[in-house]
């Protein structure tokens, strides 16, 4: 039967023999039983080598020649492989996938134009076609529990991550923030597509538990995305790219390719640094051009609109960065946030306090306003100046309250995870 390759009948017989031998494991001290067990193992080894040779002939390692369709002999051989040493099954899977993806390595070599980030869509279009081709030609050849379609996709992802990492290290100077975000978006979309199609059972990583939803708060960092998108503030025009909705937390394929972009996220952080600098300069220019808020007894303590714009922009940056990474890049981004909170405090708040003849050479500050001055003459302010002072104090209070709420986003942390405690208003 082995020589005639009657694998279908062999699979049933071999499974029965293996099951019977399991009952005699404790009797291996008997010579006849031990000899019988050794003969069965020798037959299994010979059968395994023959099956590997059959697959090598049907799917040669050299070249890309493939059979026209599934073979009944090979399909039955897979059933036999399930009974043999697991290494036989693993070798079949490894060789088949390697041969199936050999064309990909040739088409998307590092020196090819289609290998760069601006044409990353072509990589994912190629694997989609290959998976459809596999299902049509070989879907019935391998047992369903082998999850061959998913294995092909996973190996493609591992290869793509390594190849993209290699080419980005070589051409790091050519990476621009728009190009980087484009590649990341297309990649995360592909990873989401994999999560819809496959279970992730072939992955070694464990699936993370879906986190509980955050509590309701007035903090703009915790508002619903829909309310944020209804009104566009002037600061939103500085966005490089509108952040997408947060990724599905329980996607087992998240990061399987996109992890390669993390070492290059400094490009994104530097871009946000420049954008926030421009945003603060715009706030300063708008304040000089439009002047302080108009005096109004009822609304004298209104928060400056630029403050809300700043925190809305912060939120968008955090949402976008959390989709890219929650590691070192996120920490670097919070350092940028600290920097521009201080800039805002000095240039917009303290820098626009009214000047008086009674103040020291350092000028009027928020701290000096809040201190009681025993035995000293109280400075006199006009109605416009009082409205401005109230507005600045309200804005400072809003900034302080909001940063404290951001710090509580990680209540289990004993230290300040964002470093906002050092931002004095």
From TrEMBL:
GO terms for biological process: retrograde transport, endosome to Golgi. GO terms for cellular component: cytosol; GARP complex. Residues 204-245 are annotated as: Disordered. InterPro entries: Vps53, Vps53_N. Pfam families: Vps53_N. Residues 222-233 have a biased composition (Acidic residues). Residues 1-287 form the Vps53 N-terminal domain. It comes from the Eukaryota. Residues 234-244 have a biased composition (Basic and acidic residues). This is VPS53 subunit of GARP complex. It comes from Laticauda laticaudata.
